[in-house]
């Protein structure tokens, strides 16, 4: 279908290099060409077939003979007359398309790319590509002072396009932020979706998420970066299967803002006293959470909407000691052909 | 300097301060009143903090009249900015200063909270130290009660001591009506509609902390400031139920999306 996989002129790479599209991964053609990955998208965009061809840089006349084309081009055949060669008709059709439909196809292609993108970044290949972008701080850093410039991930608050723009998820404080640059305020959040951020954390448990984005950029390896360099994840303290050091490291004592007036803490009893400390709190002994978790394991009714570390919501939690290969990919085992979208 | 100023001494015109507060990057500063600046009591202790203190003060109050080279002029200019900042920290906790900063706050001159759930709540500048040259200015959100880094590098270079550690808290004591309603709204990490176990455990713990605080406040009959203040605080397990419903609902939404019912564009 496509002749080249990575020419710089491809629609995909030019789309991803547009201003404001810095968060997008380049979806592999393999992923797009697997019909399974596109299940349900036909009805979501206008001129689906043309949009898909545009994304894949397929010349429209190549599949003139295909049956799907006929219904879309109703009027043309009768006007042109049957005696005309199909080649001539194709050229006319192309011209017609160029003249009136190109902008529709272009915006459809962008919508379709975004919707496929939402799925792609949750696939093994896609999340890998996003992890490379994350490591290069392509998604920026957390604006919260106490998160000390930890790197963020692009997410959507809805999976439905047109509802909200892209946001940035900070794994260090488990909160979401508006991207600092206004050019991202035109990027649909659904193109990243609600799942990617959390899936990323579970897929790469060995990442030191408290590492500063600036350290990565400057190549300056501070003592913290060295000390917490992941070598053996099994040696680390675990909380519900997650490295304790990776569960909201930006929260808790010493990482919370305490309001003061002339050096004195503002009392909770004051009308203007602190009310939101809980949002940035974390027990100093993380095992407190493990105990809470045990309670919920014993009362499975209350946890049945939780996603366990193994990514199987209906299964009971597996022993946290279960070892994983340090770079063995996703414990979620999400495959491009997985059952995520059925 | 020319003798331009000496001719207009009698007229009240704040050339230097006008220039300063309208300079790019100085959007967080308000204009300090002439009266405040000329009252020596307000400047107590700053003479040892600022190089060429008297010249700097003259410059700020538009009475600078020294013949000097460009290098000296630049040094004094720098001192003047530092002096202005240090006086600013004192001025903005006065009645006049608070009122001026309130106007800027209402216009969101200090930016808006980047936290999605705060829905663009306006920010206030603050310092993490009252001593200069320690930490750069941060921005406080009264909705989530947290502090954020300014977006622009021209703001992140400003000394936090020019705003101080108290102003952004005092303003809400002086104007309690400004205290925003606090909200439970928060982000819950999910995978295909399901909450992720480890963060969910932390979130449950945090909600326990919050409910404990609300119980303490209720006992003391202190307004909690949350929007459902009139309602009784429900026992802990009821909220848990609420969350689970949400989880189920989200899972359904997810399914709906996959079905792909809507044709748009
Ligand atoms: Zn906020």
UniProtKB/TrEMBL annotation, chain A:
GO molecular function: protein kinase regulator activity
SMART domains: CK_II_beta
GO cellular component labels: cytoplasm; protein kinase CK2 complex; UTP-C complex
GO biological process terms, semicolon-separated: regulation of transcription by RNA polymerase III
Biased composition (Basic and acidic residues): 81-92
Region (Disordered) location: 58-92, 220-247, 298-342
Bias (Acidic residues) ranges: 58-80
Family, similarity comment: Belongs to the casein kinase 2 subunit beta family.
Subunit-structure text: Tetramer of two alpha and two beta subunits. Tetramer composed of two alpha chains, one beta chain and one beta' chain.
Summary of the function given for this chain in its UniProt record: Regulatory subunit of casein kinase II/CK2. As part of the kinase complex regulates the basal catalytic activity of the alpha subunit a constitutively active serine/threonine-protein kinase that phosphorylates a large number of substrates containing acidic residues C-terminal to the phosphorylated serine or threonine.
Name of the protein this chain belongs to: Casein kinase II subunit beta
Organism from which the protein derives: Hyaloscypha variabilis (strain UAMH 11265 / GT02V1 / F)
Automatic annotation (TrEMBL), chain B:
InterPro entries named in the record: Casein_kin_II_reg-sub_N (IPR016149), Casein_kinase_II_beta-like (IPR035991), Casein_kinase_II_reg-sub (IPR000704)
Composition-biased stretches (Acidic residues): 228-256
Protein origin, superkingdom: Eukaryota
A biological process term (GO) from this entry: regulation of transcription by RNA polymerase III
Annotated region described as Disordered, given as residue ranges: 221-265
SMART domains: CK_II_beta (SM01085)
Gene Ontology molecular function terms on file: kinase activity; protein kinase regulator activity
GO terms for cellular component: cytoplasm; protein kinase CK2 complex; UTP-C complex
Pfam families for the chain: CK_II_beta
Record key words, sorted: Kinase, Transferase
Binding partners and assembly: Tetramer composed of two alpha chains, one beta chain and one beta' chain.
Family: Belongs to the casein kinase 2 subunit beta family.
UniProt function note: Regulatory subunit of casein kinase II/CK2. As part of the kinase complex regulates the basal catalytic activity of the alpha subunit a constitutively active serine/threonine-protein kinase that phosphorylates a large number of substrates containing acidic residues C-terminal to the phosphorylated serine or threonine.
PANTHER family: CASEIN KINASE II SUBUNIT BETA (PTHR11740:SF39)
Protein name (database record): Casein kinase II subunit beta
Organism expressing this protein natively: Hyaloscypha variabilis (strain UAMH 11265 / GT02V1 / F) (Meliniomyces variabilis)
């Amino acid at each position: 279908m496509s002749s080249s996989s990575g020419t710089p002129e491809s629609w995909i790479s030019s789309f991803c290099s547009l201003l404001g599209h810095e968060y997008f991964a380049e979806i592999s053609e393999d992923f797009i060409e697997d019909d399974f990955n596109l299940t349900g998208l036909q009805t979501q965009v206008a001129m689906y077939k043309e949009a898909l061809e545009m994304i894949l840089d397929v010349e429209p006349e190549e599949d003139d003979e295909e049956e799907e084309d006929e219904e879309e081009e109703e009027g043309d055949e009768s006007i042109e007359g049957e005696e005309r060669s199909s080649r001539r008709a194709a050229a006319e059709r192309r011209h017609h398309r160029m003249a009136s439909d190109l902008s529709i196809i272009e915006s459809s292609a962008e919508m379709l790319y975004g919707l496929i993108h939402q799925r792609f970044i949750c696939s093994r290949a896609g999340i890998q590509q996003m992890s490379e972008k994350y490591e290069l701080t392509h998604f920026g850093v957390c604006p919260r002072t106490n998160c000390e410039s930890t790197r963020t991930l692009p997410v959507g608050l809805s999976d439905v396009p047109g509802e909200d723009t892209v946001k940035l998820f900070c794994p260090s404080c488990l909160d979401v932020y508006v991207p600092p640059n206004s050019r991202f305020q035109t990027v649909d959040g659904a193109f990243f979706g609600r799942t990617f951020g959390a899936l990323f954390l579970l897929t790469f448990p060995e990442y030191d998420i408290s590492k500063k984005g600036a350290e990565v950029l400057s190549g300056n390896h501070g003592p913290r970066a060295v000390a917490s360099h992941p070598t053996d994840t099994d040696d680390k303290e675990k909380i519900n299967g997650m490295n304790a050091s990776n569960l909201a490291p930006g929260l808790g004592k010493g990482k919370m803002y305490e309001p003061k007036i002339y050096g004195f803490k503002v009392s909770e009893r004051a009308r203007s006293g602190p009310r939101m400390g809980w949002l940035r709190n974390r027990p100093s002994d993380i095992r407190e959470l493990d105990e809470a978790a045990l309670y919920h394991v014993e009362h499975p009714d209350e946890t049945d909407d939780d996603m366990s570390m193994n990514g199987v919501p209906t299964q009971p939690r597996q022993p946290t000691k279960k070892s994983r290969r340090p770079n063995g990919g996703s414990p979620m085992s999400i495959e491009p052909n997985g059952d995520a979208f059925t | 300097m020319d003798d331009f100023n000496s001719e207009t001494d009698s007229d009240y015109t704040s050339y230097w301060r006008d220039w300063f507060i309208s300079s790019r990057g100085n959007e967080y500063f308000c204009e300090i009143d002439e009266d405040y600046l000329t009252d020596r009591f307000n400047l107590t202790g700053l003479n040892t903090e600022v190089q060429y203190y008297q010249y700097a003060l003259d410059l700020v109050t538009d009475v600078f009249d020294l013949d000097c080279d460009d290098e000296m002029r630049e040094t004094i200019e720098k001192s003047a900015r530092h002096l202005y900042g240090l006086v600013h920290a004192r001025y903005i906790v006065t009645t006049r200063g608070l009122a001026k900063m309130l106007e800027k706050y209402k216009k969101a001159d200090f930016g808006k909270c980047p936290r999605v759930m705060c829905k663009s709540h306006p920010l206030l500048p603050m310092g993490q130290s009252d001593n200069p040259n320690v930490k750069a200015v941060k921005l406080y959100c009264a909705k989530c009660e947290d502090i954020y880094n300014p977006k622009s590098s021209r703001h992140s270079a400003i000394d936090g001591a020019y705003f101080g550690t108290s102003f952004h808290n005092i303003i809400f004591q002086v104007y309690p009506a400004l205290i925003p309603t606090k909200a439970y709204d928060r982000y819950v990490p999910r995978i295909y509609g399901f909450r992720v176990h480890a963060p969910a455990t932390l979130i449950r713990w945090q909600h326990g902390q919050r409910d404990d605080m609300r119980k303490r406040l209720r006992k003391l009959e202190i307004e909690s400031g949350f929007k459902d203040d009139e309602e009784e605080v429900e026992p802990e397990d009821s909220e848990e139920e609420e969350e689970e419903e949400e989880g189920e609902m989200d899972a359904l939404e997810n399914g709906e999306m996959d079905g792909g019912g809507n044709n748009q564009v």
